[in-house]
Amino acid sequence: MRQFLGYILGFAIFIAGIPALMWWVSGMPSFCSIPFMRLILGALVALAGLAISVWSIVYMKRVGKGNPFDAMGHEVAPRTKHLMTYGPYKYSRNPMLSGTYLYYIGFLIIFWDWRALLVFLAVFVLMMLQVRSEEKRLEADFGEEYAAYKKKTGRFITL
């Protein structure tokens, strides 16, 4: 039940809530008023980001045997039991967040408004604090294995 609630809370905040806030602060533009090509480009970028995030969540559940929702050191749902270094985690230590950022960038393209950018920047800063907290937890949970993984894999992307 806690895992299900973690997914619902994650969806409400990150998938629906943040884009809704970006739309609201942008003056609630009608999607009909947004240039078609900008709407299509933004939607494609957002869908690509969402796909990366979903892949990461599914992989985390299947391989890591846990849930992604760990808020600033407070376990909202059971944490992963295995360090994940393959699948999406081969390309990024935080593929779920990388995908989420890409998802929001898609909405930035769609709304094209400085106030939406401010929301994105605020979320970015808060999530970076979360990432730092999570990295400390992963170092404590997985020790040298995580340290070695951290050396070879970028925080958001490994080229």
Explain the overall architecture.
The chain has 159 residues and is mainly alpha-helical. The protein has helices at residues 2-25, 36-62, 95-111, 114-152; strands at 70-71, 74-75. It has a two-stranded antiparallel ribbon. The longest helix has 39 residues, at 114-152.
Unreliable residue stretches: none
Going across the major beta sheet, what is the strand order?
1-2
Strand content: under 5%
Number of DSSP helical runs? 4
> SSE string, helix = H, strand = E?
HHEEHH
Radius of gyration: 16 Å
- CATH level-3 fold name: Four Helix Bundle (Hemerythrin (Met), subunit A)
Number of strands: 2
Q: Give the CA-based shape.
A: elongated
CATH class: Mainly Alpha
- Named at the architecture level, the CATH assignment is Up-down Bundle
Distance between the termini: 38 Å
- What's the average pLDDT? 89
Please outline the major beta sheet: 2 strands, antiparallel
Helix content: 55-70%
Class by alpha and beta content: mainly alpha
Number of domains: 1
Which SSEs are present, and which pair or pack?
Layout: H1 2-25, H2 36-62, E1 70-71, E2 74-75, H3 95-111, H4 114-152
Antiparallel strand pairs: 1-2
Helix pairs in contact: 1-3, 1-4, 2-3, 3-4
Summed up:
The protein contains four helices and two strands; from the N terminus they run H-H-E-E-H-H. The protein is an all-alpha fold and 159 residues long.
Main traits of this protein?
single chain; 159 residues; mainly alpha; Four Helix Bundle (Hemerythrin (Met), subunit A); two-stranded antiparallel ribbon; elongated
